[in-house]
Amino acid sequence: MQKKNAVTSNQRMRQYALAIALAMASAESSRAVGFLLPNQDPEAIGRGDAFAATADNPSAIYYNPAGITQLPGMQVSLGVYAISAYSSYTATNGATAHTDPFPQFVPQVYATYGLKNLPLFFGLGVYAPYGLGISWGQDPQFSSMAQKGSLTYLTANPVVAWKVNKMLSVAVGGTVNYGDASFQNTLPTAEFPPGYYFKFSGQAFAPGYTAGILFQPLPRWSFGINYHSGTVMRFDGKVDQTFPFFPTSIYSSAKIDFPQTIVGGISFRPTPKWNLEFDLNWTQWSKLSQISINPSPYESMIPGPETVTLNFKNSFIYDFGVTRQLGKGYYASVGYIYSENSSPDGNFNPLIPDADLNLGNFGFGHKGKRIDWAVAYQFAYNGGRHVTTDSNDLADGTYKTFNNAVNASVTLKF
Known about the structure:
- With 414 residues, this protein is mainly beta.
- Helices cover 7% and strands 56% of the residues.
- It has a single domain, classed as Outer membrane protein transport protein (OMPP1/FadL/TodX) (Porin), CATH 2.40.160.60.
């Protein structure tokens, strides 16, 4: 009997660990679109992340690396993105739960350098394109499938850009990506006594690349294209299960396909004081159709790899922003973002309470001879997404989202 229970518990752990990719990569980011975190600079955030066709500060390394050809000499930007992410849940049976809106901080570092006698520019960015975390507390109705998870995903991104002529710039870069993820939940009390839960933790590395084009045929018009490749990460780690008096660990790995993204932008400057831009961001979430987990070859109690179906769908983000120059180097921006949902109802997981989101953005800053600074505020809202899943009615119900975020940076020019 004990052997049968042991095998059952290991099988159950595998089933839940399969959700890691999403669950721990969950990161309740301030966007829908899976767990993408595209907010990488306050000047860009203030204008609704519509920045691919402007890209005139060091964060261009992320938004469009071809834009660094607009930056003479050496410039270094340091920033931090702070977000309080909140979701609430009301079940069809009236049960409620909500996430802990604890503040989370994401660093951003960019450095650029332009050669004096050649049209070549170099940059290095360190940022987090995915991540953050979520906690539904200890006893939500769906605690057996979702309790808490976190993901740290850091990218180092060196780039080189070439100013082909006065109108055209192109750029390419490589990325080195590091992931650290954890996920914890309880197991059904019908099968296991209270206090029985498991936790997965794992780390991964993966390479990738980026590219960008900036084209300005007329002083008033600018066009930009930015590309981030997908990455395949294998999180090597272990599952720790805590059964009263019988803790065990099982080594395993989970493979996650992070999607590629393409952003196109159009900027129009009717006068030197105004800049209006629209960007369209496409993310290939369909690449994350399923997740596989493989046990250690030395772990005889777990036979063979297993998979879980996610059926994520490709989705768009629509960015629009306006910047007004106020004089003496000061400027103000406003922006609006509409972000499409990527997770279908049938495979919905509460650790990624994905939904169509409306985002408002406001920014203010100053550009000086040696120092630039900027601050931005962003909120994200969804009034309610009703979900009916295919396999676990404990997660059925209505999910609401309201997130608040602040970003600040300072840029030094040498």
